[in-house]
Protein 1
Amino acid sequence: MRRCLIVDDNREFAENLAEIIRDQGAEVDLAGGGGEALALVTRWRYQALLTDMRMPGMGGAELVHEVRRLDPGLAALVVTAHVADDTLEAARREGLLAVLAKPVPIGPLLELLSAARRDGLVAVIEDDPRLSDNLCEAMRRLGLNFPGLPVLIMTGVPAAPEAGAPAFFRKPFDTAALLAAVERLHAAQPGTGP
């Protein structure tokens, strides 16, 4: 069974969100702050962490950083009323799955939680030549932050090399084949499974 951790100092908000997620069949634990959350992360193996950004004591960015030291494979999402918060960039560098604005869009949140996998990361890359500098920098950073990251390449460029990627698709590609490749790569990761 999937288990997630919600961290928010607004207990009523956290309880309402937990009830919605539990209705989808997941187990949910609540923490009112960073210290309590870290204690739970050392005790349980969560599929996803959902945290607020602005909380007394330890904010969301610091919490995500500390959680990454304890459990680097935990999928992390931030829910915040302050989407322009400068500290969000620090949390993004820790490899967030998503940042969602409050009030939380329940449909997209449930989809993200359903798709969240431990030790998983999906990079969507557009091969527009005008973005090549950004893409090279993004791939460099991903390689530094996530050594051994499985790579899937999807391209519409006819002369693009296959670059030794375990999964290489030319556009237009077969969606079922792409999903099967993602599942294969995920299953091959140490300590993961369906």
Protein 2
Amino acid sequence: MDLLEMWEQMSWPVKALMGILALMSMMSVGVFFERIFTFLQAQRQSKTFAPQVAKHLKDHKLKDGIAVSQSKNYKYSHLAKVVLAGLQEYQFQQDTGVQLDKEDVVDSVRRAIQRAAALTSADLKKGLGILATIGSTAVFVGLLATTLGVINAFQGIAQTGSGGLGAVSGGISEALVGTAIGLFVAIPAVWFYNYLTGRIEYFNVEMDNSSSELVDYFIKRS
């Protein structure tokens, strides 16, 4: 029995579940490649951004550092978003003319950086919820198709009054196909999720390090 014959013998609920699994598979692959593109851009742009903004800060040119951080060339850079928040907050404190203690200024900058880092981390995680849902539910969708296939097999027995292979082959086939496709969809989704989570953890470490270095810079500057 080939795949076309299996499809023709499947009941419409099982066909609907197969369609759902196909949609889940496409969503999983789409999210993965979209995130990979975003992460590669973030890594490449951050690698270029870091030495440029460091040069401006070394020369005490905060406005130039802000301009570089706001450049469209670094719109994917996670480091640019964090550094920009800190520089803008510090520049705002300087422009207001209000005399604040050094500790208050640094705390204000630190909070701005933490907010930016949290938002950036959440943006990096975009789509991972879909992968987690697919990885945890695709198997159960396949098992539901398996259950319906077994029910169909027993209905074949009841209609023919025989328990021979011919009466149950269609239901058993669709049951096995449902389980296999469910696993085929779930396993890559889990792999994708774990890999992307590891990359995000690395980006979070980079943002933490950059945040600490920027805060230290403002402490010394103050």
Protein 3
Amino acid sequence: MASGHILLVDDEPGMREAVQAYLEDTGFTVEVASNAEEGWEKLQQLTPDLVVSDVMMPRVDGYQFLAQMRGDARFKALPVVFLTAKGMTTDRIQGFDAGCDAYLPKPFDPDELVAVVTNLLKRRSATVDAARGGGGSESHEIADLARQIEELRRAVLGQRSGTGIAQKPSPIQIDLTPREKSVLDLVAQGLMNKEIAKQLETSVRNVEKYVSRLFSKTGTNSRTELVRFALEHGLTT
């Protein structure tokens, strides 16, 4: 059985229900939205593993929805599959130029959709850490990140002598779940997702979800920004 959390955005109730039922029967967890605005709201709450979106929707179409996602650092690498009745080559090119990962013209074979979604999720799981490292040597990037985090820690400790980062009360209330707090503490120790997953006895994909949620809750876009924010506001020690 497949697994993964999918956000399905389609304004056609019949198509939306059919695709949802098939994906759920295959093993995926599916959340639905009837338009792009609702889809954007649910993105803030769910942090899915992948988005399946119709292209032809009222007010905000799939291309605009995708541009909105790609313009947000939290969703730049989120896999997106377009489903559309527009099957012309120029339309597919427009979809890929907009940043979609796969394009299936209606009517499509449900098994093909499952194969595409499964492949994209596997690829994302295998490459997400390297992608965050900016494409360089993974071991070098990990060492550099650990060094930056250690420097941040020293700066905070140095506040006693007046040279460090002074802690300050958070301007907003940030409610972290126990698991989010555990992940944050390990990120602040300089651990990468694979190491965190091993420590917490969970999957790398789950850790990725928690890190993404932490980015969203703190308004940060990188691990170093997240650690700095957490240290400054006393969210971790």
